Amino acid sequence: MISTFTAFIDANVFYGARLRSLVLFVAQSKIFRARWSDEVHDEWVRNLIKNRPDLQESDLNRTRQLMNAAVPDCLVQGYEPLIAGLQLPDENDRHVLAAAIQTRANVIVTFNQKDFPEDAISQFRLHTKHPDNFLVDAYNLSPEDFVEAVQNDFAHYGKPPLVYEEYLESLAKAGVPQIAKILEPFKVLMSTDGNGET
């Protein structure tokens, strides 16, 4: 399926590698159109390096390049003039709202929903969704496409291979326990060796 429903992804969704990967693979399925900005990239990379000094900025810059390449037209540009006229509890979040408006997004996907109060964003026909609820909605829209995206995501962890239960557990720890629970029955479809064995 190809959807015109557009989701702007906040930086905190990309902070963790496991959730970041799943969101990207689901976005490639075209259940929804994923959008973000260079400022969103800057934010998750900056916060990750701050908390994980073992990571190299050059590696994360390669990750952001691969993300941009994986999802056509994902980068929102030209939103900067909108920022000054927006009101949010934290001024540093205005770039997210501005980019979401610019790209005519339907939803902002974020763990920090309180940072985008309804009275501040509803006038732009926007609302927020927690990543877990958003992924559950995406699954319900097209279970077959969603599970195929999960298969592709799980399979790409080939070296070293992941155990499916560990994969789901890591998603739950990343803040999306509902979708992890929904995906439990699909273990039989997941394979890392092409023989149905994980």
TrEMBL record:
Highest taxon of source: Bacteria
The segment(s) forming the VapC50 C-terminal domain are 131-184
The PIN domain covers: 7-114
Q: InterPro entries recorded for this chain? A: PIN_dom, VapC50_C
Q: What start and end residues bound the annotated signal peptide?
A: none
Protein name as annotated: Nucleic acid-binding protein
| Organism for this UniProt entry | Peteryoungia aggregata LMG 23059
